[in-house]
Amino acid sequence: MEKNISSSLKLVARRDRSDSVVEVNGIEIGAKKIVVIAGPCSVESRSQILETARAVKKAGAQMLRGGAFKPRTSPYSFQGLEEEGLKLLAEAREETGLPIVTELMAPDSLDLVLSYADVLQIGTRNMYNYPLLRAVGGVNKPILLKRGFSATVDEWLNAAEYVLKSGNSQVMLCERGIRTFENLTRFTLDLSAVPAVKKLSHLPVLVDPSHGTGHRSLVPPMSKAAVAAGADGLLIEVHPQPEKALSDGPQSLNFDEFGDLVQGLRLVAEAVHRSL
Amino acid sequence: MEKNISSSLKLVARRDRSDSVVEVNGIEIGAKKIVVIAGPCSVESRSQILETARAVKKAGAQMLRGGAFKPRTSPYSFQGLEEEGLKLLAEAREETGLPIVTELMAPDSLDLVLSYADVLQIGTRNMYNYPLLRAVGGVNKPILLKRGFSATVDEWLNAAEYVLKSGNSQVMLCERGIRTFENLTRFTLDLSAVPAVKKLSHLPVLVDPSHGTGHRSLVPPMSKAAVAAGADGLLIEVHPQPEKALSDGPQSLNFDEFGDLVQGLRLVAEAVHRSL
Amino acid sequence: MEKNISSSLKLVARRDRSDSVVEVNGIEIGAKKIVVIAGPCSVESRSQILETARAVKKAGAQMLRGGAFKPRTSPYSFQGLEEEGLKLLAEAREETGLPIVTELMAPDSLDLVLSYADVLQIGTRNMYNYPLLRAVGGVNKPILLKRGFSATVDEWLNAAEYVLKSGNSQVMLCERGIRTFENLTRFTLDLSAVPAVKKLSHLPVLVDPSHGTGHRSLVPPMSKAAVAAGADGLLIEVHPQPEKALSDGPQSLNFDEFGDLVQGLRLVAEAVHRSL
Amino acid sequence: MEKNISSSLKLVARRDRSDSVVEVNGIEIGAKKIVVIAGPCSVESRSQILETARAVKKAGAQMLRGGAFKPRTSPYSFQGLEEEGLKLLAEAREETGLPIVTELMAPDSLDLVLSYADVLQIGTRNMYNYPLLRAVGGVNKPILLKRGFSATVDEWLNAAEYVLKSGNSQVMLCERGIRTFENLTRFTLDLSAVPAVKKLSHLPVLVDPSHGTGHRSLVPPMSKAAVAAGADGLLIEVHPQPEKALSDGPQSLNFDEFGDLVQGLRLVAEAVHRSL
């Protein structure tokens, strides 16, 4: 595989480095324990995010995800609550203690998002946004870098290299499905990328089976598969009432489904000598 | 997902049917126990296939795979030992008791292959070969139907429908990777297809992580992921000396690697309430 | 580009060979004049094929296409009139003098199809069907080899190599669209493959914009584009009443639309120093 | 095709609108005359850009392209001359009168680029960069919006909708190749998108055969094909010494090749009732 990867990669390449561990408020990502990050696609209201935060914490999630700035295909779709959404996330953290993962869409909202988030997410549509990658390379906060849905693993590792080269080595990668001819699933979750990237790089690798499949019923089996393949963590969409979600309802779990999933994941984690 | 699947599918569709179990010489595929089918890409010599059969049996495989007729991209590549290869497979079965899975490439060699094989494999390049599907629909022997590497799940289920409609309901499906833009791996193993097909159809589903990834080091993690995702079995390439194989060496495991893999798989199988 | 093509290709490779010209009943394909092959997807009835043959001849087509054996995704779809269809094609040739291009799906119908057809078409789903390629390599009749919709140019040239190696050098290649993530069109017509193949091989290259796009309105502009890109001919679906066609109606032209297209093509052909 | 396009599209949708014409310093794009925009991938030096500007003007180009800010896969590749490059482009315009097309990568360099450019290019990697699209929607200058190499036509039209909705209706679309499994060419130029978009939208559509193919020898045939398919213009990479270019040399034409191409294009343009 190494011959299909840029020889110019310096900072992200595995070479003889041991696994990097990224720390978020005391939680280690990339160590033995698998990290589950859960929450709604978009922050929609105070009650929605608070209820979800409580439920996912109770079920075993270690961090809360939720979008305040949403990159939507149509300009007429819900674009997120913006700063109001960030405040609600902070309130959820206040109550539950769960660190916040939220997306940054542009350099000019970096300071705003930084003042609320514990992890800055670079979304799939921005993986090639090099000015944004350089911007987050300049901050001292962990970055969750999603793979572009049309990006090769090599391009993805190069995107991470932009961040590390700009000074920030707290980078977690996240596979979230690639675009293929198959339209049964929303994207094709490329789980092979997990062991491949673990071999080629020292950075932690997470998996988002919600966007990767687009179907609620596929999230539990693919979450287990991700852990079996060696993922260091999962990003899972959870909503109090998925059928009423403003975005991504069909791929969101409700609280019970999420609780069941976490139980099932524990067994798989142990089977591959990890814990949850 | 159902809306992306042909409403005309009758015999393969799940509807309210329970899981189909295909039986091969007393081995059940599609039941609780996960089946491991192992062996070389091509039968190359008597010693190669006999040694491999003994080794994979000892490690825990329940069936032997091996190609006697090989569909190769170039007419100048090794095309298989043909009947000589089938005889060697039969000899390996004689000695080890492992049933034989081997590929059928054309209707006019059906009788020949039938007289040696326990399971007829329809390869990825022949999934759209409807005369061949009709031909194997007329025999009383289990069929392993690989997904075309550019086939949608819907086309794959329709291919199975050809076999069942022609009278043979002993069909096992096998995901083996689809062609995408990513060239780090030989194909992109579409593991989401496993739970999707289990939902849409009652047929057993196997996974071939060797062709699906093309890299030896990715076979163990993706085998575990396949089981975690709900696969009923695995097809794994094993060779006494992978670096000397006439075909697919880079994706073949040696005996030790295969033995280690089977050990690891047991734990994952149990974690998803299956056995090995 | 040469470095992405198998170095083992011998007979189809361009090297210093001049353009090959394939002759069908006195019509040259691969010479200055661009050849238009037109007709329905499937032969459906005597009146349908005879009317179409007359109309496309009058409009300027030099050969008649029509399927008697149809590879259909679903076993419940119309599968073609088989020998009855071949007889109707022969009757249309009798009356109009247009040579017949029709698909062969399996080696065991080779003699039957040979006794009616002037050109044997290998369809996109059979490009990897090596026994079939070897079979048509043994006959003295021109072969129209469609590109597999998931085949690389290299695999396509290797498929042609199977035919030439088996003794038949009368091969025409036909680009007909590849499978990509874009679902606006049925396939993505890869016109770049035309000049690429003309550079890499001496064989004539045709284009099928009907299957390549799947939309009637895109057939005229893409036919012109194909000629401008250097194609030696076109395969165009024409039906007396496209809205009533048993297969591929949405991509078929009616007689008037086909007549207009041929007029427009003449000008483009001349602009690239060809004729029609 | 309309059923595969968002029904929410308002401003870019064709409906019963006539073709939009975008004007750049008196040059009309989207009218009868086909526009050729040529120049190097990157501005590298004063002599390089001045020589190229003179040569492409003499050969018949109506605008000059050249990148000052370059989105490169690797952070270690040449990233462009930035403001120095913009100044050199302005000097080339001063001398030749050719308007300047150059890429904008981030909102915070909008004022800088605006002060030099005549057309702002949004590159393929930024098609999903909605903050950037909103930013250029707020200026009174023509926008050249490249299709994301993994974007569906629907997503591309929605990206244009972001610009129009933000107040700027001077948008030109540019097809530049999509990512597919085929690796013979750098991307797969999706020329069918040209007539499809002309039907679905009133905006002008250009084609970039240089990035779309990645091979110099394919640029002339695919340029002709683009015009035959109905493109309103072309974006072509030209360099004084392609073999010494700092980026994209293999797909750049030298001056003589570009001159020959323009001559050939004139004939094709006339064959489809356009002019050059």
Largest interface by residue count? A-B, 44 and 44 residues
H/E topology pattern of chain A: EEEHEHEHEHEHEHEHHEH
Low-pLDDT sequence parts of chain A = none
Task: Give the biggest sheet of chain A.
Answer: 8 strands, parallel, barrel
Rg of chain A is 17 Å
CATH class of chain A: Alpha Beta
Strand content of chain A: 5-15%
- Reported CATH architecture of chain A: Alpha-Beta Barrel
In whole angstroms, how far apart are the ends of chain A?
A: 30 Å
- Assembly type of the shown chains? homotetramer
The coarse overall form of chain A would be: globular
Mean pLDDT of chain A: 97
Structure class of chain A: alpha/beta
Classified in CATH, the superfamily of chain A is Aldolase class I
Per DSSP, the total helix count of chain A is: 9
Number of domains of chain A: 1
Residues in helices of chain A, as a percent range: 25-40%
Number of strands of chain A: 10
CATH topology label of chain A: TIM Barrel
Characterise the protein shown here:
- Four copies of one chain form a homotetramer.
- Chain A has 276 residues and is of the alpha/beta class.
- Chain A has one domain (42-271): Alpha-Beta Barrel (TIM Barrel), CATH 3.20.20.
- Chain A contains nine helices and ten strands.
- Chain A has helices spanning 46-59, 83-96, 110-114, 130-137, 153-165, 193-200, 209-213, 219-229, 255-271, and strands at 22-24, 27-29, 35-39, 63-65, 100-103, 119-122, 143-146, 171-175, 205-207, 233-237.
- In chain A, helix 2 (83-96) links the parallel strand 4 and strand 5 (100-103).
- In chain A, helix 1 packs parallel to helix 9 and helix 8 packs parallel to helix 9.
- The A-B interface holds A 1, 4-5, 150, 152-154, 178, 180-185, 188-196, 199, 212-213, 215, 217-218, 221-222, 224-230, 264, 267-268, 270-272 and B 1, 4-5, 150, 152-154, 178, 180-185, 188-196, 199, 212-213, 215, 217-218, 221-222, 224-230, 264, 267-268, 270-272.
